[in-house]
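User: For my dataset I need records formatted as: sequence, then structure tokens, nothing else. Please produce one.
Assistant:
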Amino acid sequence: MTATAAKGARQGRRRGPSPQKRAADRRKRRALADVALDRLGERYQHPAWAGPRLDPVSELVLTILSQNTADTNSFRAFTALRARYVTWADVLAAPTDELVGVIRPGGLAPTKAPRIQHVLAEVHAATNGSWDLSFLGTQPLVEARDWLVSLTGIGRKTASIILLFGFGRPAVPVDTHVHRVATRLGMLPPRTPLDRAHDLLEEVLQPEEMYPFHVELIRHGRDTCRAPRPICGLCPLTDICAYYVLAARGKAPMAPVPRLRPGDVEPARYHDQLIHGWMPPEAPRASRAPREADAR
């Protein structure tokens, strides 16, 4: 072997962390997850999956509508869509310009309308027109996820939302709140790509922990660990938080604790009724699972 080849081989072997470093990183993420689940669970009432909130196709469409927009807007768009069209076949057959107008309250309608129709066409073809996605609940998890991400405009986060909220399957959707809180705690390296972030978090969580971990980090990201300045004075995790070490030294921004007058109660900012566009059962009928006609 020439000197150049030997040098190249040594450099190749040095790429990436060693197995020992990877194992140490996993132990660190696990330790942080233990504390976060315990303390945030106590603060946010230990959320637990209580069954599907919508049928799988509705969940899929709603999640597309929720991409890159506020949950209130995506819910408004979903409600308008369900009020306008009786069946998913009607949505698929609608003129795209018309669908754009219907879902415009959700934002990015010119992008989302054709995406929804492309996805519905793929679902229609894959299910022979039955719209039955129940196989996603029994397929091996990786196969179910791969099928979802093969759909037009569906990435890892959206696939994870469908699997977690629609079927209670062990997946951690990494949205902006989960990514921000996990990064600040030190569970994710800075600027970790989303697909990699999913892998790093899922490999240290037990299946039954994934739903509460996801929901608790969303709630904490909205309520306390906000962007761009977290309210560290209200956070129960500062003793384990990498971000707080910098903030306490004045090297990272943090917001002051809000001042409340006697008798004032600050409303919770995590709005449980809107997580990824979902509304509670008492929401208007048009927002709920599709009617029986949708199975046609």
